[in-house]
Design a protein that fits this description.
InterPro entries: AB_hydrolase_1, AB_hydrolase_fold, AB_hydrolase_sf. This is Putative hydrolase. One of its GO terms (molecular function) is hydrolase activity. It contains 13 helices and 8 strands. Strands 1-2-4-3-5-6-7-8 form an 8-stranded mixed β-sheet, with helices on both faces.
């Protein structure tokens, strides 16, 4: 199966701009949508390019590029909210009534919010770290602090420090990866999105808003997620430490948790084979 960048990339026009995506697999009745995370130089292809071929063997797969990350057309609004809206626009444009979803970090939060608000659209949900509140670990975590430092004043050394916090095995942070992420992080749309999510001023405003808000945070509504949910986590995640899994594991009625040893935040990359086989078994049930 040819799952190269050029052979899989697509785009579709919506009433709020063009959404770009990657598509692979011939299993039209079993749709799997992959939702990417956030951070310098991130996009859907970079998150899931190593997994697309595997999942395309059993599912019709779509990797969505969220607005504001330098690939799809940007839209106004907070990136997490615009990402969720883009998924629904995308599904409607392609006539996808419902699908299983994999969400990495921020993508997991997007998936949780979709499962709460649009339960008929999410058949099964797999999250990769990132969902839930810090229970015992400091908040912000070490990885988020490093991300804030980079966002406030980007430079290559700060990017390397952040990338090293994402993994257990630092050999994964190659010169090619650093070059790729550094180039992509300089995209103006990506910089604007990063500032809205991780800049120190934006973070302080969010903390003040949450302290005075009348509405509960998204994780307090996770009991409304009705679909079977697989929470996956790296035991050595320094961005979203494993204690964060306790709330979603307890609150989501049909949740199960799989923790991968010697693995950081990028479970789908660092524990690739074990992650793929675990997810395939969950989807096959």
């Amino acid at each position: 199966m040819d799952v190269t960048y050029e052979r899989t990339r697509r785009e579709i026009s919506t009433d709020e701009g063009v959404i770009r995506y990657h598509e692979a697999g011939e299993h039209n009745d079993d749709v799997l949508i992959l939702l990417h995370g956030s951070g310098p130089g991130v996009n859907g292809w970079r998150n899931y390019r190593g997994n697309l071929g595997f999942f395309a063997e059993t599912h019709h797969c779509y990797i969505i590029e969220f607005p504001g990350f330098g690939v799809s057309d940007p839209v106004d609004g907070h990136p997490v909210l615009t990402a969720g809206a883009s998924v629904i626009r995308f599904m409607d444009a392609l006539g996808i009534a419902s699908a299983a979803m994999i969400g990495n970090s921020m993508g997991g939060v997007v998936g949780i919010n979709l499962a709460i608000k649009y339960p008929d659209r999410v058949e099964k949900l797999i999250t990769i770290g990132g969902v839930g509140p810090n229970i015992f670990s400091p908040s912000p975590s070490e990885g988020i602090r490093l991300l804030q430092e980079f966002t406030d004043a980007p430079d290559r050394d700060k990017l390397v420090r952040w990338l090293n916090s994402m993994v257990y095995d630092r050999a994964l942070v190659t010169d090619d990866l650093i070059d790729e992420r550094w180039a992509a992080a300089n995209d103006p749309a990506a910089q604007k999105t990063a500032a809205m999510m991780y800049g120190s001023k934006a973070f302080e405003m969010m903390q003040q808003y949450q302290a005075n808000a009348d509405t509960p945070p998204y994780w307090a509504m996770m009991h409304k997620v009705k679909c079977p949910t697989l929470l996956t986590w790296g035991r050595d995640d320094r961005v979203s430490p494993p204690d964060m899994s306790m709330a979603p594991m307890r609150l989501i009625p049909e949740a199960e948790l799989h923790v991968f040893p010697q693995c950081g935040h990028w479970v789908m990359i660092e524990a690739k084979d074990a992650f793929e086989s675990t997810v395939r078994a969950f989807l096959a049930r």
